[in-house]
User: Fold these one by one.
Assistant:
Number 1:
Amino acid sequence: MRIPPPRVLTVAGSDSGGGAGIQADLKTMLALGTHGMSVVTAVTAQNSLGVQGAWPLPAEAVRAQFRSVVDDIGVEAVKTGMLASAELVETVAALLDEVTAPVVVDPVGISKHGDALLAASARDAVRTKLLPAATVATPNLDEVAWLTGVQVSSETGLRRAAEAVLSYGPRWALIKGGHLEGDAVDFLTDGVEEHWFRAPRHDNRHTHGTGCTLASAIAAGLAKGRSVPEAAAEAKSYVTGAIAAGFALGAGIGPVDHGWMSAR
Ligand SMILES: Nc1ncnc2c1ncn2[C@@H]1O[C@H](COP(=O)(O)OP(=O)(O)OP(=O)(O)O)[C@@H](O)[C@H]1O
Ligand SMILES: Cc1ncc(CO)c(N)n1
């Protein structure tokens, strides 16, 4: 009988367009040789043009999905994405305390189009309850700004951003410099080790789902037993390839190609 693949759980929102959220997470997990599972926190009506509607699920539904997965199947890594409200952030942080698996926290605040995916009233719970539960937190520069007040406009500021994020308690901070000019540079540190991940910027506007994809790829690597720096390196090359292969769908920003490593 076949040995089962490593099990990875995403706790995130659904993107009806299939490019970000739960859908991006599960595709990434499959592409990287793991078994993806999901706890849906919110349903969004979303496409290449933006988010047309969002409906958080009751906390009870989030708890029930999590327990169904953990109690029977088990998890080797968890990734969190859109959590919508303070109540859901607190619910998920409490559930994470029940597992020993490494946790990748993507502190999703707004979509690429600027639509809110997290209530402003939930930010404090992200800082004080969710970040302390993270093995790795993966904010972009906008998320660094609202989490910590630190504004970064160039590569040299990434170290300062990481220190500010680490002060909230995640074991590692991976600061995504994807929104800066020039190369796409990310900085990973635990306060001692420092790792820079640099990739050429792809001049491709079809980048819907980049952040979700990177965080899920890290979770997949951790589930496979990689160290955080090894998982981040593998995730960076996976997301870079997916961005290079991103394609137009709809009239706006199309998705990255999660299947870029498979023959078509
Ligand atoms: N045009 C690009 N070319 C190459 N790499 C990119 C590009 N844009 C972003 N990246 C990389 O993609 C990864 C995700 O970063 P990004 O800053 O896009 O995340 P995000 O803003 O959280 O995404 P999302 O909008 O999906 O929430 C990082 O490794 C970043 O460096
Ligand atoms: C559901 C969902 N999660 C995360 C993102 C990231 O931007 C998005 N656009 N939609």
Number 2:
Amino acid sequence: AEAPAPDVDGIVAALNSAMANGAPGAMARFTGPDGVESLTAGVRDRATGAPMDIHARFRIGSVSKTFSAVVLLQLVDEGRLELDQPVNRYLPGLLPDDRITVRHLLTHRSGLADYTNAMFADTVPGFEAVRNRVFTYQELVDLSLSEPRTTEPGVAYRYSNANFVVVGMLIEKLTGRPVERAYERRIFKPLKLRDTSYVHPDTRIKGLPVRGYLHPDAAGEPLVDSTEQTVSWAQSAGAVISSPADLNTFTSALMRGRLLSPETLEAMTTVTPTDTTGTRFYGLGLRRYDLSCGAQVYGHTGTVQGFYTYAFSTRDGRRSLSAVANTSNHGAANTALGGTLEAAFCGPKPA
Ligand SMILES: C[C@@H](NC(=O)[C@@H](C)NC(=O)CCCC[C@H](NC(=O)C[NH3+])C(=O)[O-])C(=O)O
């Protein structure tokens, strides 16, 4: 059946709802067979009042995990490593358990603890303590290993940033270059993602920035401008900067098979449930959301101080939606922004 046209009013309503729940601004960009819809609401800068701008750049958080997964899977396609081999075969002595495989990292089934839970237990103090820090990959792995494993390898899905820190270490070991070189040569340049960059540990967003605002835990406390930070606590798990159009291009090109072999893309999109709702799944560095109309969309969400992002595409790559709100730790705003997915991919709600 032909896909429904996007519900543009529904997308706008979701952006306004994100603002009603604490986001200074929000925007969404949909690409489909009938063209592009670019929608903005509110401001990208509270101090100047500059309106949200569809060409502005922002921190995409864990959508970076999909970029990292693509690079590692390209190395699998090139025969440089195998998914079911132990991580320790490629990074000798790194992990205390030889049973943890490369696939366990990409599926969040390694059991490596997520050090960000402790790091950001107190949102603003935690952020201020690390916003200008530069961590080595090893320091982040050590933070993870200082906490107990969360599952026996392969037994259960336990989301952890540590998994994609190790993915970054694998990329640098196998390519002999910093991870940003791999992103640039293998994804940014071939897809002409001119608004997309990996500038760690630089703290600035180059080009036209969306400024991000962090809500303190205590209600009523003023927002914190969290735009400038190293994101060194995440790196290959969350430090990419991009734009709505580049995220549309990336998710569509990925699903169209422009970045990986058919077999590896098939492996990437082979998912298991992440919860009991029957609508949320994870493959290899990739989420699948099953929407109310039956549409299945593939991509990732991203949470980094001051920014919440969705970047999803249909399996055929013909339709894609990217959306961002410039606040992060107001769950209601994040859920409201998620309404853009239903509106974009399912069309108007039946009357
Ligand atoms: C879950 C999300 N993961 C990511 O994007 C990664 C990079 N971010 C995190 O793990 C959250 C870090 C804390 C954010 C902070 N929260 C707190 O400080 C809570 N006390 C904030 O909301 O900005 C994803 O995969 O979609």
